[in-house]
Amino acid sequence: MFNNLRPVWLVAQRELRDQFRDWRVILPMAILTFCFPFLMNEFAKQTVEFLNQFDANLILEGLVPFSIMIIGFFPITVSLVVALESFVGEKERGTIEPLLTAPFEDWQLYFGKLLVGVVTPLAASYLSIGLYLAMIFRQGLAMPKGSVMLQLFLLTSAHAVLMVSAAIVISVQSTSVKAANLLASFIVIPVALLMQGEAVMLFWGNDEVLWLAIIGVLIISLLLIRLGIAHFEREYLLGREIDTLNFKWTVRTFWSQFTGGALSLGEWYRKTLVGSLRRTVPAIGFMVLIALVTLWLSYDWIITNVSGTLANASAEDLAKLQENVGEFSNVDQLSENLNAPFLFLNNTRAVALIFLAGLASFSVLGILLYMVNISLIGGVYALFELLGVAPLPIFVAGVLPHGIFELPALLLGSAVVLYIGAALVTPQTGKSMGAIIIDLMADWAIIFVGLVVPLLAVAALIEAYVTPAILMGVLVK
How many whole angstroms separate alpha carbon 290 and alpha carbon 367? Predict the structure, then answer.
């Protein structure tokens, strides 16, 4: 085991020597590490004083966790330059050939670069956070509680791993440092948006959701590392000299994969669509399992948590809740407000959103959105049961008629997203990452156009014009 890790440390030592010889890297990092905590502390003071003039009743302690998260973030963004040029920078300097010809395995080279790329910004971040904590201690401000501090340090570590692993993937796939630096915005901006959501959780004090955010970031980070190793090829690094954007080749490759050589619509369904479905069968089975688990978890959560709330609710609140549930029986008004085009566009947009979220997160966020949609069924079923309303007849009449088309469409659309995420992190020799992505996009388009859209169209027609009549017949009895 130690012999396998020794080359990783040798590569890391080499990378550290290169970093500390370059003052253009060390000086900005040092200035930001030691100066930014003072700026953040002064900014927090000025913000509190300004807002308290308008009776906002803010105290400086409330901004301390947020300030810690921001202070930990900025040194990572500066150090990102090192990770972005980890491979492509050596290629431009002409020093990559000795590294690639060394008797090291690909994962050893990759992890050596990754280790230095993560440890250096984390050391700067922790040092900056420690300086800020010393400042607020001297000011007599209350320290965040231990669990919050642990979450903040874990978030900082998770952000560092996420950003550095993404930067190294870009460095492997780029042919120039300029191109890698331009692509850095696709790392910094999404993580900055993610931090906005995490800041809201901090201010709300929602510790449980923040733990889930930490786990989600770590999962995406591990998938990025797996992606980089899966598509790390020494010949690719040495062979490509310039990036070219060939729209004709992209469109031609996508269209060839999408049509699959079919000459008619029937042949396309029999040959191309069946081939795409065959490739996604494992993902479909996994999504069925996720759906069953999600249904049970949402049902059990409502039964466990809401039953106590209903038991302690006042008679007036229960009467109001039952009145709101009773409005569900007004199917005529509901059918007037919902029409087939609206339902079709709404469901299609939901499937497209699952695809986009999954594409940006190696299917993690896409699966979460799929679970949210499925959990509504189990949650509402349990809620009806707690309110004394027989849920089974209502669900058979109100969900099943269109659900036999809508739920498979949602399942298929989400399964393809899972398949894309799994295929991206699977080594495929002989193909560039661009060609693999185009093929995967074509597979998604095949299933989306060939199955998901027709199923959603049929489901919208049934939900708008058939389901209300069946549900009314059940409710009137």
Answer: 9
The answer to whether residues 443 and 280 touch, using CB atoms and an 8 Å cutoff, is: yes
Exposed, middle or buried: residue 3 (CB in 10 Å: 0-12, 13-18, 19+)? Answer: exposed
For residues 444 and 257, is the Cβ–Cβ distance under 8 A? Answer: no
> Mean pLDDT over residues 114-135, rounded?
87
The pTM (predicted TM-score) of the whole model is: 0.76
Inter-residue contact 167 to 187 (CB < 8 Å)? yes
The Cα 130–Cα 420 span in angstroms is 41
Q: Which of 110, 442, 476 is nearest to 261 (CA)?
A: 442
Q: What band does 240 get if pLDDT is binned at 50, 70 and 90?
A: low
In angstroms, the CA 287 to CA 371 distance is 9
Name residue 465's amino acid.
Answer: Y
Q: Measured between alpha carbons, how far is residue 359 from residues 84, 365, 393, 416, 421 in Å?
A: 22, 9, 38, 11, 7
Sequence ranges of the domains in the chain: 2-239, 247-476
Task: Name the phi and psi angles at 162, rounded to 5.
Answer: -60, -50
Cα 412 from chain centre: 19
